[in-house]
């Protein structure tokens, strides 16, 4: 029997199949691209982790699309009218078509994403669906493929849009190209699509809401950004009758900070209430769990702070997807996904009895950890400049941003130095750049400075690298940072205020009245 693929096309299809299944945030993706293109591979601009946002297709991708198109045409010409084509060949052909479709429409999907995020509802009724369908019909209506589960145009369209959204949100919302950041991006991708994209496309695409995701990491490291990226990247079906996507991905994120509200208010916000359920409940109200569509997510921020009664109710939601409004007996159903975050060590809280074990295990099957800013800068110090640039762009216009970013970077270099521990993480860096913009300087708050200094001198002391003098000075400054006044610090240290004063820097860090 005549072969569908020549040897070269077979090798290309195999490389494309590997590429399709590879996490795009791991270096393996570029290796796959290199393998598929051989000598034609262009190194420039394809750094797998720091590729700048682009409005054009990378030359490697353009070349791959051309090659795929040619290989698909040759395969179609050689496809037997009758007789069986081996399953692996069919599978490879589908991989080629899938790659071609995704890449060909990627820039048009980018436009949909940008417009939908700007609130244009019409963006979610993309006119190019018809052309996409024609392409699917042209390429997929080959004996042995038409009618294969997963080859429907609506599903392929929804998958391509989802992958593009994930790429967009994971890549663009998190600044930084260090290894810890790369690991984070790869973990987010895996949380959205699992480690097997093929299986995801076949069976899991509409079931990921059954798995809760837990994001842990120090404060200010972007846990909420990660939660948003996951939520905005969920599968949203395309409804051909309605002529658009069934929901707006940009409107499906329902965040709640559990440490900021009383238990009654938390319950009311999450589950809703009946009129009269508590003082102030003047009308019936649907909570986040009820409003969240199947394609959306409820984000439970500071989950480690939630009280035991609510833990039980949330566990019920995770186990049976059911809940009741406050003051009501009707059982309602939650259809979305739960994403939770905390900077606490939940495993310890669980061992200490403050966090329910069954709830913990229900939450932690999909765990993502955000790295501290210090860990990122230790791996890639040049990221600080990239981050400052991106923060500067948010507050001043394009013409002014480079000069302001330079000013902020210089200020940080001269005043905080390369080893500043950034205990407040990215949030503190934002604060620092904002302060430099407004006041021309940044002073870490006493708490932040205290924590920063503590991290530094304790490490040095533990390594036996400090003199007794330096140790005394560091400890005095630490206590002053905690107490905020010379008198209080002197009392705590058992010395007089002049001794404290003498060990403070020329411009002591103030907190309150001295
Ligand atoms: N890698 C990053 N790239 C860009 N912005 C970031 C990054 N990490 C954090 N941020 C920004 O830092 C700020 C704090 O982020 P976020 O609120 O998501 O942190 P968090 O980990 O949820 O903090 P907390 O534990 O205190 O709730 C936000 O303004 C966010 O946009």
TrEMBL record:
Which Pfam families does the protein's record reference? Sigma54_activat
Q: Which keywords label this protein? A: ATP-binding, Nucleotide-binding
Q: Which SUPFAM superfamilies match?
A: P-loop containing nucleoside triphosphate hydrolases (SSF52540)
Sigma-54 factor interaction domain spans which residues?
174-438
- UniProt keyword tRNA processing, yes or no: no
Q: Does the keyword Ribonucleoprotein apply?
A: no
The beginning of the lineage is:
Bacteria, Pseudomonadati, Verrucomicrobiota, Opitutia, Opitutales
What organism is this sequence from? Actomonas aquatica
Would you tell me the protein name for this molecule?
Answer: Sigma 54-interacting transcriptional regulator
């Amino acid at each position: 029997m005549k072969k569908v693929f020549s040897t070269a096309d077979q090798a290309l299809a195999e490389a494309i199949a590997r590429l399709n299944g590879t996490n795009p945030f791991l270096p393996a993706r570029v290796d796959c691209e290199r393998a598929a293109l051989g000598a034609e591979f262009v190194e420039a601009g394809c750094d797998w982790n720091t590729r700048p946002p682009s409005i054009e297709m990378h030359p490697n991708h353009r070349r791959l699309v051309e090659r795929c198109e040619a290989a698909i045409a040759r395969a179609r010409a050689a496809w037997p009218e009758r007789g069986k084509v081996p399953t692996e060949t069919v599978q490879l052909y589908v991989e080629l078509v899938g790659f071609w479709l995704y890449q060909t429409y990627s820039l048009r999907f980018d436009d949909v994403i940008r417009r939908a995020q700007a609130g244009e509802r019409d963006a979610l009724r993309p006119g190019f669906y018809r052309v996409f369908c024609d392409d699917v019909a042209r390429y997929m209506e080959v004996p042995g493929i038409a009618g294969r589960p997963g080859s429907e145009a609506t599903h392929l369209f929804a998958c391509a849009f989802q992958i593009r959204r994930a790429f967009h949100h994971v890549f663009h919302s998190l600044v930084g190209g260090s290894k810890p950041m790369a690991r984070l991006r790869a973990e987010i991708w895996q949380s959205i699509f699992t480690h097997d994209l093929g299986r995801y496309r076949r069976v899991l695409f509409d079931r990921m809401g059954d798995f809760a995701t837990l994001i842990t990491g120090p404060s200010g490291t972007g846990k909420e950004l990660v939660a948003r990226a996951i939520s905005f990247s969920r599968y949203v079906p395309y409804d051909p009758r309605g002529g658009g996507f069934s929901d707006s991905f940009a409107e499906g994120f329902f965040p709640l900070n559990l440490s900021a509200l009383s238990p009654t208010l938390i319950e009311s916000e999450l589950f809703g209430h009946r009129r009269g359920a508590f003082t102030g409940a003047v009308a019936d109200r649907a909570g986040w769990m009820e409003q969240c569509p199947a394609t959306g997510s409820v984000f439970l921020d500071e989950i480690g702070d939630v009280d035991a009664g609510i833990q039980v109710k949330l566990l019920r939601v995770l186990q049976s997807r059911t809940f009741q409004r406050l003051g009501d007996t009707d059982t309602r159903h939650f259809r979305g996904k739960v994403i939770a975050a905390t900077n606490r060590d939940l495993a310890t809280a669980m061992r200490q009895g403050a966090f329910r074990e069954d709830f913990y295990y229900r939450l932690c099957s999909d765990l993502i950890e955000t790295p501290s800013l210090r860990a990122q800068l230790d791996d890639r110090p040049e990221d600080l400049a990239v981050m400052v640039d991106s923060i500067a762009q948010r507050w001043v216009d394009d013409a002014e941003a480079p000069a302001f970013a330079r000013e902020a970077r210089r200020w940080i270099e001269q005043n905080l130095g390369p080893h500043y521990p950034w205990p407040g993480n990215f949030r503190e860096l934002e604060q620092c750049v904002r302060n430099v913009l407004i006041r021309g300087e940044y002073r870490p708050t006493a708490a932040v400075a205290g924590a920063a200094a503590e991290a530094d001198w304790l490490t040095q002391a533990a390594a036996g690298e400090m003199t007794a003098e330096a140790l005394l000075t560091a400890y005095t400054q630490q206590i002053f940072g905690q107490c905020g006044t010379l008198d209080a610090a002197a009392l705590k240290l058992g010395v007089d205020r002049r001794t404290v004063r003498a060990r403070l820097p020329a411009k002591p860090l103030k907190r309150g009245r001295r």
